[in-house]
Description:
By secondary structure, the protein is an alpha/beta fold. It has two domains: 4-161 and 340-360, Rossmann fold, CATH 3.40.50; 164-337, Glycogen Phosphorylase B (Rossmann fold), CATH 3.40.50. Helices cover 39% and strands 13% of the residues. The protein has helices at 26-32, 69-75, 87-93, 110-118, 125-128, 139-148, 164-168, 194-204, 221-235, 248-255, 271-280, 291-298, 308-311, 323-337, 339-360, and strands at residues 4-7, 21-24, 40-44, 61-65, 133-135, 155-156, 181-184, 212-215, 239-242, 258-263, 283-286, 304-305. A six-stranded parallel β-sheet has the order 9-8-7-10-11-12, sandwiched between helices. Helix 2 packs antiparallel against helix 4, helix 8 (194-204) packs parallel to helix 9 (221-235) and helix 11 (271-280) packs across helix 14 (323-337). The chain is globular and about 65 Å long. It starts with a strand and ends with a helix.
Amino acid sequence: MNRWVILGKNRPLHYIKSDQVGFLxxxxxxxxVREKEYGAVVIHGLDSALPLLEDISEDKKVVWLGWGYDxxxxxxxxxFPDGLYLRTTxxxxxxxxxxxFIRRLVSAGKSAxxxxxxxxxxxxxxLLGRVDxxxxxxxxxxxxxxxxxxWFKPEYTTWNYGSAEEDFYTAGVDGHxxxxxxxxxxxxxxxxxxxxxxxxLRRHIDLTGRNIIVPLNYGDxxxxxxxxxxxxxxxxxxxxxxxxxxxxxxxIHLLHSCGHVFMNHLRQxxxxxxxxxxxxxxxxxxxxxxxxYRWLENKGAIIQSLSDFSEKPxxxxxxxxxxxxxxxxxxxxxxHWGRDIQRxxxxxxxxxxxxxxxxDR
Length: 361
């Protein structure tokens, strides 16, 4: 028997079409995870489900499918002792009025990251030790989590949402030449470190004939308005913020106007946008501190560090990837997120969760 549950009060679902998904209060969910007919509990993003860990019966295995926000603060804060924001972004956030949530994110250090990313839910090694299988977005993040937290010893298996064929391609535009515009960041959140990217573009890049496309259609409203104001002030009509929700196909069509992608996250983030653009043949520039940068580099992907713009003057002229370089990147993405591979991983995940439970009996 399978059951799909969203924790919390009943509310309209805008993007989930299945009628098999229901809502449960945390107390009812605690009763559910003790029922014998269920062989495992699979948690998608840990925050709201964290209180359940104490109530899941010992005969069930717990699978944590990590999203990023739910494990960076809890397990990987040591990797970012100065926080997830660069200096200019920190200075901007410090001006936020009345100390809203975003203002609390500015403090540097481990405790601040835990508050910012881990929210206010308490946890302990004993509680997280209840997790039997942990699948973060990247395998490198699993190794980082175990190295930084010796008490954390779940089994690892590779699993990701979606597939390249169903989520990253769009009929009608793929295969056509990309435009010369520049995609900057993926959301209205300070983890993007937009201001530092804007400075790179202003100081080091020839922007003649290019627009700067900046997705800001979700995130913090105060931060969004600040980025829009600063962006227009620096780049005028070349600055194009995206502030309204767009259907996936329309969004991917718009991305086709961008031949270059600038991402300045310190943690793994914006993976979907990066994969889409690599499949399109765009050139991707990232902060080399990001685990995603290291992961892609280890896979053989053709990407570039943002630090190159200050260290290598010749980078100021944005040159597209060669056809052979584009082919390398397509192979990397399809080789990890291809439909057949993803299906095999889902089967393995289910078998692993259930076989482990049976083996313990």
